[in-house]
Design brief:
This protein is an all-alpha fold. The chain has 20 helices and three strands. The chain is globular.
Amino acid sequence: MTFTSPVLNYTLLSPMIILLAGALIGVLVEAFVSKALRPIVQLSVTIGTLVLSLAQVWRIRDEESTTAAMGSVVIDGPAILLQASILIISIISVFLIADTDHFTALAAALPGSDEELHAVRTGNQVTEIYPLTLFAISGMMLFPVSSDLITLFVALEMLSLPLYLMAGLSRRRRLASQEAALKYFLLGAFSSAFFLFGMAYLYGYSGSVTFAGIRESVVGGSGNDVLLLIGIAFVSIGLLFKVGAVPFHAWSPDVYQGAPTPVTGFMAAATKVAAFGAMLRIYYTVFANAEWSWSPLLSAIAIITMLFGSLVAIAQRDVKRMLAYSSIAHAGFLLAGVIALNKAGLEASIFYLFAYGVATVGAFAVVTLVRDSGGEVTDLNRWKGLGKRSPWVAATFAGFLLAFAGIPLTSGFIGKFSIFSAAYENGAKGVVIAGVLSSAVAAFFYIRVIVLMYFTDPIQDGTSVEIPSILTRTAVIFSIALTILLGIYPAPLLTMITNFSTFIR
């Protein structure tokens, strides 16, 4: 047996290589830079890494290749769009994460221990959140461009493992944060096992782990259909878990509520882009000729996810849990783009993922501003009269809620209209009807929060709005401006997406 040296196209792989290099530099900064300089150095390294990676994505935008990493990575138009979306959302998220008040001074210490108190008193703030974020983004960048099952699984674990740790780093409510991290880890491990099981069946069906090899077997019908069906089912479970679709959603509300709010925003936005990017590539290229096997079940899951997320959100009295169930409903809306299985569906999904991701980070950024002496206030009853306490903060949050509801002149309306139109073109009328009804239900609880903020009197219970730092302010302003701009003038972005959104095989 002879060893074949790998042939890699470092130019096409450079956006991911830059991120991994930045993460490793962040680890070294954590080890060797003094505690006084550590936060600013880590932030500078992280932002610089993300901007450099984004510039490199833009540089290779016109290049296409299926052999960038010996057939394991594919670079094409949708890959460029999805990677750029992940990086832009991540840059906004890092501005929010940079407010270290949200994170424990010493994650390894027991909550309330003398060791933790000493770290707080001495200002010995550990900033491992930055390299963990870069490692997670590296996995997210690789996930939608993977073109074989092994690379796909490696990317899945690369993006998941740092998030499990990040969910447990909350400064306040440490036990709830650690509980969220443990739940996320355990359920994530189960979903990874299902994913591996599906990989094994797909390999048994096709004799190949590459997307091209599996597609050839599907098109030629050369394998055992039972193995194909089981493989699709178990791989789908792993992917549906990452996007929080019913019935694989159970982790979402607890993790969203317990994790540090900046991490929740980052996780809710960027992970969805990566996971749905991978789903689109798999279903549009590998399983397209087996639509008969997965489309009915995926349609049923989409309908249940939309209705469940919208209906259960009505009963929530915690703003982070409400946004979690809202996220579940949006996962159902995005599944309509997968079911559409046409170019319009791919274009609409990419636009929706970017628009929803930006609005989600902005909404969670606003959540960090409503506080009392014990930290963030997420009880909706204590948001009464927020419009009178801080009109600008309430107006910004209302803008994000209207975008989630799909109200015209927001990015959410363009996204929903596009994705439902694409699904209707493919004959998925049941999914579209359920989506419209779910949107109407969702609009109720979004507008209820707006009424709560503007048409009730504030209660003097110690709740106030914190003046945001320049970094948090930047994240909020950029998010709301982009949300409104994409609602009023989406043509340039839609045109660019149309020009780029074609998978190569």
